[in-house]
Amino acid sequence: MKKIWILWGLICLALAGYFVNQMFIQAHKTDFLIGEASYGHYQIEMACTACHTEPFGGEEILQNACVACHQTELDAAHDSHPKKKFTDPRNADRLEVVDARYCVSCHTEHQHEQTRAMGVSLPDDYCYHCHQDIAEERESHQDLAFDSCADAGCHNYHDNRALYENFLLQHAQEPWLKVLDEVVLSSSMPSYYHHSKNADFSDVSAQQPVNLDSEAKIAVAAVFAEDIHAEAGLSCASCHLQDADEWLAKPASSQCATCHSQETEGFLASKHGMRLAQDLPAMNTDMSRSMAFHTAAQQECSACHAPHQYQQMSATESCLSCHDDEHSKSFIASPHAKQSDIEFSCATCHMPHKQIMIDGQAFSMVEHNQNANLRPNEKMIREVCLDCHGLGFSIDALADQLLINNNFNGQPSKHVPSIDWALERDSR
Predict the structure, then answer these.
(1) What are 152-192's pLDDT values in tens digits?
(2) 385: burial class by Cβ within 10 Å (0-12, 13-18, 19+)?
């Protein structure tokens, strides 16, 4: 009997040691994963502390983690359902079914099998709980089902700007295609590259490049001489030399960030860089479970910007070297790619230029966070589509999945009557 108790004790100690090792030492805590994370978070599901900042935290801890990552995005979208709306005592009864003060009430994680678009884990008719009377207020909505509220980008719980009536009326009469000569994409503004306050380029400029004693190195130097970094007065050491004397054969993205801090901020918030933001190895296309890929390239700066051949606009070839889905593969034959007046690439729409103000001067900078205008796709209307197209065409096109799949090779086969309804109400 004594031997049995000793054996039992040893087994318990072994199990305790195993789980202590998993919890506090091992980077991958797979044994504690209670279920697959959603599309938005699966890349960092092994970085437990990204959301669970305290081991015994409750809803408030999780809420703070959500806000830490997503508040900027919600502010930009003019969040139409902010938490303060539901802390108003007059709305207390609305919380009985769904406690909308907390993100996790609608976005429950680790339930991938029952998570819908945009990480929503509630049934699609969740609007019903607060808006049962909408059919009485809006004649146009009488025959619409509550699980269709988000169809065709009509309504978005957080970003409802696409359907503001003033916005619809303002753009109601626009042609489907604007005059391209009048919509040159931010090219008149200078580009902005931020030199980190910690980087001392006066010292770097005085350093000598590496000893070029082989044909390969000489060839690299010849290419670099035509590079935009050389034009900026940088040397090999500017990127390859870290600290005082540590030479980096292949500088990581963190080295790029010493100058490109603004671009890096967007990159780390994107699907491409979110693992690096959590100190995890760079995203590898083999890890993806949601899209078709045909290479296993790691998502770092060099995946799109080839060293020594830096381009201000990421080339379409860079995107197509990884993305193998129908929409991406159709780009070459698309109307966008065939434009001769404006240089189009995948990045034109998915990583558009944006204007930033520095010391009172306007600069153009590439938005490296694709999430900023990609999901839901109606985000693209204001920031991208309206640069070249009318609002009516843009809404219809983004509601047509077949048209999206063939990369907009044709006209929309669907019509979303939002503008029609706004015009009808305005005429009364």
Answers:
(1) 678 889 988 877 889 999 999 999 998 766 555 445 566 66
(2) buried
The DSSP element (H or E) to which 271 belongs, if any, is none
**Tokens found for residue 25:** 């030492």
Residues forming a β-bridge with 284: 298
Residue pair 157/372 in contact (Cβ under 8 Å)? The answer is no
The token pair that represents 82 in the structure block: 């902010």
What b/e readout covers 391-414, taking b as 16+ CB neighbours within 10 angstroms?
Answer: bbbbbbbbbbeebbebbbeeebee
How many Å apart are CA 147 and CA 132, to the nearest integer?
A: 12
Helix (H, G, I), strand (E, B), or coil: what is residue 205?
helix
Cβ partners under 8 Å of residue 99, min gap 6 = 86, 105
The pTM score is 0.82
Three-class SS state of 234: coil
**What's the Rg (C-alpha) of the chain?**
26
Tell whether omega for the bond before 307 is within 30 degrees of 0, i.e. cis: no
Rounded to an integer, what distance in angstroms lies between the CA atom of residue 377 and that of residue 399?
A: 9
Residue 57 amino acid letter:
G
Looking at the chain, the number of H-run helices and the number of E-run strands are 21, 4
Query: What does the pLDDT look like over 299-355, one tens digit per residue?
Result: 888 888 877 775 555 578 888 888 889 999 999 999 999 877 777 889 889 998 888
390 token code pair:
């009318």
Structure tokens at 143: 């025959």
